[in-house]
Amino acid sequence: MINAQEILKSVYGYDTFRDGQEEIIDSVISGNRTLGIMPTGGGKSLTYQIPAILSSGLTMVVSPLISLMKNQVDELVAAGVSATMINSSLDFEAVKERIYDIRQGIYKIFFVAPERLEDTSFYDFIQTLDLRLVVIDEVHVLSQWGHDFRPSYLTAVDLIENLSNTPNVMALTATATEKVQHDLEHILAIDKTVTTGFARANLAIKIEKGLSDADKKKYIVSYVKNHANDVGIIYAGTRKKVDELSEMLNQSGITAGRYHAGMSDSAREAAQNGFLYDDFQVIVATNAFGMGINKTNVRYVLHLTMPGSIEAYYQEIGRAGRDGLPSESVLLYSARDIQLQRFFIDNSENQEATYRHNELKKLQEMTAFAATQMCLQRYIIQYFGEDMADCGVCTNCTDERALYDVTVDAQKVLSNIVRMSQQRDDAYSRTQVVNVLRGKLAENMLWTGFDKLSTYGLMRDWSLKKLSSFVDYLVADGYLDVAGEYNGLSVSQKGIQVLRGKLTVTMREIKVKETPEKSRASK
Ligand code: ADP
Fold first, then answer.
1. Looking at per-residue confidence, does 131 or 15 come out higher?
2. What is the CA radius of gyration of the chain?
3. Can the keyword Metal-binding be found in this entry's annotation (predicted)?
4. What is the DSSP letter of 37?
């Protein structure tokens, strides 16, 4: 009997499995409901394709994006595996034909969008098949704790659960915090979870701070010019920014594609193909781009705007260096990006309280990431509940500036927060905390009596930007906790150690670019 190893060689031409692949495949073949969590580029596709090829029956892959399906089908067909897809890009006749062919046993694997399962005749049809395995790709969207939560998928899961031909189920994702993982294990009644390390040794994570919007764009143009032989992706927060930046690049003599949800289907497909076949040097895109795009030689990912969560960010930068060669990501961070993400949350269709709460929390965590001075990749890996040694190549690992002891400054901030909370029995945002420390309580906050606190104006010689960054740093490195709609600050257990003089706080000088401060109501 042929085994997984032989398929790996004969179909894909690889000699050895990558970390986690064999374990997932074995688990699925043994009939376990299996959850596979591997980083982007880790090789998830093989983990369902090989069991599908080895199975005597059929495999159905439920996949959220048409572009994703198309890539996968093309790849399978190129590898000599009969595969097809059924989705809204096909007309009625084509769907009928493919259904007929599936019934005839022509295909080993077929891909569908989750909504398709809600079509009763299709649902009845798949129950007549010898369906052995259902694969749910990009499964993190099922969890309300994951980014990109799509509650509608839960309907698909229910339908899968109720299939009379009871296929095994496996689910795959590149991003899952412990919370998401537990949630998915529960929703899908998973027997076995295989997680490989999230660390990407070949990826150098960089953050550039304090650039104006105009300087960010200049930075990108010169970056792309300096990497003339490399292909990259540039993520921008809005469609307008995508249009502007791609135009600017093209005017600078760079062939740049663009991609966002406001473009027609055909324009998007052309952009995607142009990128896959190296017609463009770079593609400028919103976060609508990239899921399932299997281009291994992307050398860099730049972020003109900060994404709204660490999960989304790590998935996006993970598209660089899937071939394992050294690659780089640069986040061009500015505090204004937080407001943009906040705007997205405030204007999201989903205004359910827990959803909002989660999204705000994720944004807060992303902001903290931008402020940390620890190894950036390690910070992310710890966020996902694992640990690693410092990467040695990120902005923070390569920062050679001296460390200062800032314990006394940290104590000032922390004790002020304690006092503010005691005075009004509430938690206050960074803005309020910074205003009190700088002795600049707004007129409409005078009722709080914060101007009478002994800490009022204690850090009046700090600029607004610098003190705000310092507070962010204290959040990032766990001295402060943040909670609630208004991101109220409170002192953590670690912070209490600092207040008690049991823990020292060190950091590198904060780099901020000062702009003249607007005059504001102050006392
Ligand atoms: P993911 O879906 O996890 O992002 P893919 O399945 O697209 O990753 O795999 C990324 C790349 O790695 C692909 O080009 C794939 O062919 C390659 N690959 C997968 N498994 C192996 C392996 N065992 N040995 C070598 N290359 C592999």
1. 131
2. 25
3. yes
4. E
Probe target for ligand 1 pocket from 11, 18, 276, with the most ligand atoms within 8 Å of CB: 18
Residue nearest to atom 12 of ligand 1 (CA): 43
Å from CA of 375 to ligand 1 middle: 27
C-alpha 172 to ligand 1 mean position (Å): 14
Helix then strand count (H, E) for the chain reads 19, 17
Neighbours of 493 (CB within 10 A): 9
Collect all residues with Cβ–Cβ distance below 8 Å to 484 and sequence separation of at least 6. 427
Q: How far is the CA of 98 from the centre of ligand 1 (A)?
A: 28
How close is the Cα of 43 to the center of ligand 1, in Å? 3
Encoded amino acid at 464, one letter: L
Indicate if the pLDDT at residue 184 is higher than 90. Answer: yes
Tell me if 18 CB under 6 Å of ligand 1: yes
CA 514 → CA 203, 370, 459, 467, distances in Å? 31, 18, 17, 12
For ligand 1, say whether the CB of 377 is within 6 Å of any of its atoms: no
Write the pLDDT tens digit of every residue in 252-298. Answer: 999 999 999 999 999 999 999 999 899 999 999 999 887 667 788 99
Which ligand 1 atom is at minimum distance from the Cα of 42?
3
Q: What is the mean pLDDT of the chain?
A: 90
Measured in degrees and rounded to the nearest 5, phi and psi for residue 392 equal: 85, -5
Q: Report pLDDT digits (tens) over 333-366.
A: 988 888 888 888 888 888 888 888 888 889 989 9
For range 94-104, the mean pLDDT:
94
Cα distances (angstroms) measured from residue 327 to each of 105, 210, 317, 441: 43, 23, 10, 46
CB 392, CB 204: distance < 8 Å: no
% of the chain surpassing 90 pLDDT:
66
For ligand 1, the distance from its centroid to the CA atom of residue 40, given in whole angstroms, is 9
Interval between CA 287 and ligand 1 midpoint (Å): 22
